[in-house]
Design goal:
With 308 residues, the protein is α/β, with parallel strands linked by helices. The chain contains 9 helices and 12 strands. The strands form 3 sheets. A 5-stranded mixed β-sheet has the order 3-2-1-4-7, with helices on both faces. The chain is globular. The relative contact order is 0.15.
Length: 308
């Protein structure tokens, strides 16, 4: 940016399976406009129109036609620009970035929603002023993104940080090998997500309740629910210890509904040193574990920052 030139406003869109969230951010990160709408499920053309309409609404609300446009969502783009690995399956195989740019007459940048979380938190969130940030979504599913020096890593396959679809390290007989929708078994997502917590609890107790209800009952002293959350904390500690051994991030940021469980930020760091490689020395693990600063807005804010 040349001296004396005002940075453009940034519009970000978070495309989810049930809702679409759009914001316009000022250069300092202040929210100037935002809107949420329902996602037109199972209809690519309608989804594309909804995205374009949101951008035009942001233009009109702010009086700017030069908004940069970033789009975040599940999945990644192939070298040909086609969306893959999205759990919004009607979007797979579609050139969403290219089609939206054509509809708007301006360039668009797409990134995986976990990468948007990482970028948001590295820019002005829990990972600000740190070089390497690993950000994990613990929600209905489980993904992650990596930001280094404020830039997202993607990789030639668009898979950098694909934390949900690697096996749980140091798994033992207490860790079920649940089948994953990706076709494998024992993926992190099957154990660490909110869905995974509920599935594990049902597996051992026969009770079919949500992760949120398990947390509520655990707080009320329910022994079975407390045991379920402890198994989850141990598994999360193993998984993140594997990340520390491989990437050694300064900060690990948790987002998604499961990240709202406060016990994780004390219990997991107390456990993970057992698996973090230390050469036998009782060395302190310096990686910090933090909740996301921007909560469920991190994804849409990261999308807005894709043009920074």
């Amino acid at each position: 940016m040349k001296p004396g030139v005002t940075p453009p406003l940034s519009l970000g869109i978070d495309l989810g399976g049930t809702k679409i969230h759009a914001v316009v951010l000022a250069p300092d990160g202040a929210t100037l406009w935002e809107q949420r709408i329902a996602t037109p499920r199972d209809d690519y053309a309608a989804t594309l129109r909804a995205l374009a309409d949101l951008v035009r609404a942001g233009d009109a609300a702010t009086g700017h036609r030069g908004l940069t446009v970033g789009l975040g969502g599940p999945g990644s783009l192939t070298p040909d620009g086609l969306l893959k690995n999205s759990n919004s399956t009607w979007m797979n195989g579609q050139p969403i970035e290219r089609d939206l740019a054509a509809a708007l007459g301006r360039p668009v940048r797409f990134a995986n929603d976990a990468n948007c979380l990482a970028l948001s938190e590295a820019t002005d969130g829990a990972g600000a002023n740190h070089r390497v940030v690993f950000a994990v979504i613990l929600g209905t599913g489980n993904g992650a993104g990596i930001a280094v020096d404020g830039r997202v890593l993607t990789g030639p396959n668009g898979l950098a940080g694909e934390f949900g679809h690697v096996p749980l390290p140091w798994a033992d007989a207490t860790d079920p090998q649940f089948a994953c929708y990706c076709g494998q078994q024992g993926c992190n997502e099957t154990l660490l997500s909110g869905t995974g917590i509920a599935r594990d609890h049902q597996h051992l107790t026969g009770q079919q309740i949500t992760a949120g209800e398990i947390a509520r009952r655990a707080n009320a002293g329910d022994a079975a629910c407390m045991a379920t959350l402890e198994r989850h904390a141990v598994r999360l500690a193993k998984a993140l210890a594997g990340v520390i051994n491989l990437l050694d991030p300064d900060v690990i940021v948790l987002g998604g509904g499961v990240s709202l469980m406060p016990h994780l930020y004390q219990r997991v760091p107390a456990l993970w040193s057992r698996w973090v490689f230390s050469g036998g020395l009782k060395d302190e693990v310096r990686t910090q574990l933090k909740p996301s600063v921007h909560g469920d807005a991190s994804g849409v804010r990261g999308a807005a920052w894709l043009w920074r």
